[in-house]
Amino acid sequence: MNKRKNTIKPQGKGKGQIQGNSRNQNRDKVMSNSQGQNQSHIKGQSQLKQFTVQEASELLPFLLQTLSSLGRNSVKSILARGQVSVNDKPVTAYNYKLEPGQTVTVSKDKVIEEVPFVGVKILHEDEDVIVILKDAGLLSVAANPQENELTAYRQVMAHVRNHDPKSRIFVLHRLDRDTSGIMMFAKSEKVQQLLQTTWQESVKERTYVALVEGTVKKPEGKISSWLKENKSLKMYSSPYPNDGQYAETHYKVIQSDRSYSLLEIQLETGRKNQIRVHMQDIGHPIVGDKKYGSKAKPIGRLGLHARVLAFVHPVTGEVLRFETEIPKMFLRVFRDSTDARK
Length: 342
Fold this sequence. Notes:
Blueprint: E1 40-42, E2 49-52, E3 57-58, H1 59-66, H2 72-80, E4 84-86, E5 89-90, E6 97-98, E7 103-106, E8 111-113, E9 120-125, E10 129-134, H3 152-163, E11 170-171, E12 180-186, H4 189-197, H5 199-202, E13 203-213, E14 220-229, E15 235-238, E16 245-256, E17 260-267, H6 274-281, E18 304-312, E19 319-323, H7 328-341
Parallel strand pairs: 12-18
Antiparallel strand pairs: 1-8, 2-7, 3-6, 4-5, 4-7, 9-10, 10-12, 11-12, 13-17, 13-18, 14-15, 14-16, 16-17, 18-19
């Protein structure tokens, strides 16, 4: 496959690792927000005023005393606009209880509190693209814009608008709800169109790992077919040439035993449910994938993870490569199988 020749070789291991020397790192703002974690980012750090609380008090009286040059209404406005934080946590309540030793910070600008993510972690963000790690079970993008279901798209949109109400994100590709792994969004319609138009050339590597049923005896191989969708929205390989969308999948066995095989999968095309259909085609459906013939559910989820994404940045031209670890539960089935035979 030609794409792999263009991939920058890893210089180390780790989640969300960026490969390549950035020519524009000063413009990047890389954020890693863990699930359920609140982080506060304050603009205009040079405009901060900090005060140490000496005795117990309520916040408004404390501010009226320390900001004595300002009128009462001005101080109330500063509080209401979210420009005050206590120990780095934004506070707007007038009667917030202060304790000795706490630090009260007043900023010229509004304090931005990050909204906690659920099932999403940001690996990289700059002015043009945002790369995330999505958990299994979270929908990438709602099929119906009117739906209120929590999705990766809605959460990332809320994140960018938290920093700039005019900001938007644009869909580049999707992961199935039950597939975990790396995906990205564009931050402008121009970048979206540029990447979608040049997707085959811009994306240098898309690597998945799949836990499948049975022992895959051939150490590596290529699967190709013409994919179609039936009336029940299930994809299948047509028996006729040129009947549907061409799909090509390459695989390599990483580990296997009598019950399961762990495969590294490279995509030449990115069709809907492509990997899932092709694994069924060779008689080794992905575990937990009842829709495509699986009868085993050893890990309680679909055994598919988008592990690596490498692409040419649409503006800077540099190659960015992101790699995550193989989910531990994918590997645990082999240890459990070994222990059971002892």
